[in-house]
Amino acid sequence: MEPILKIEKLKKYYGKSPCKTRALEDITFQVMPGEFLGIMGSSGSGKSTLLNCIATVIAPSSGSIAMDGCEIQALKGAALAEYRGKKIGYLFQNFELLDNLTGRENILLPLSLHGVSEREGAKRLAGLASYLEITDVLDKFPAQMSGGQKQRIAAARALILSPGIILADEPTGALDSKNAKLLMEKLAGLNRDAGSTILMVTHDSNAASYCRRILFIQDGVIFHELRRDFPEETGQQFYSRIIKVMAQLGGGSANVL
Question: Is residue 228 part of a domain?
Fold first, then answer.
């Protein structure tokens, strides 16, 4: 099986010498189809920079990022728009919903931008809304929704074009513990039952325990990796191993993540 995402010797620097800041240094890893991979690290470790490079929000200084064997740095114009719209689905920490559109309109917006028919859009929306438990808020505006409802609307928007990979940037960061757990259960279910590939940046150990594999980044370098032993290892057992890694780094979750 070939990886859906392949990153090799990725580097990202900000500024110029002698004040150059290293954000990423020789990052190399692969994401396989159907994998749920977590990226963890302290503030400033480079994890969000990594996700933004993959999303083409920023350009790396060197190295390569390949999606389905295609180097994304070489994409231009329509090909780049196709990659951003259909190959990846981006789930933001702060929802990024349009306040003047209803939940339904926010979700369906990517379809109108990429020429998907209304009939097909309605079919996709019905399935996602039912699974994510947002049917009752589709016709509400974001200001009328709870944080958990907003994030599940945002998740439906990220999924509506059936992307090859979902990029989730601190998806539980703005949620309380109850809504964070519900969202992670939904994402884990999509990964388990629909084979959705998810790459998630998070500082939340509980959220990370839903992943199958975690890469820990420090000072722009991958320094540790944890794999969850399926199906024998429970989420709680994996969570305990995550906490142990953080404790070894000095002081537990408050200082490390």
Answer: yes
SS3 per residue for the chain = CCCCEEEEEEEEEECCCCCCEEEEEEEEEEECCCCEEEEECCCCCCHHHHHHHHCCCCCCCEEEEEECCEEHHHCCHHHHHHHHHHHEEEECCCCCCCCCCCHHHHHHHHHHHCCCCHHHHHHHHHHHHHHHCCHHHCCCCHHHCCHHHHHHHHHHHHHCCCCCEEEEECCCCCCCHHHHHHHHHHHHHHHHHCCCCEEEECCCHHHHCCCCEEEEEECCEEEEEEECCCCCCCHHHHHHHHHHHHHHCCCCHHHHC
Give the tens place of pLDDT for each residue, 63-108: 999 999 999 998 999 899 889 888 999 998 889 999 999 999 999 9
What is the extent of the structural domain holding 13? 5-95+165-256
**CATH number, residue 214:** 3.40.50.300
**Does 108 fall in a domain?**
no
pTM here? 0.90
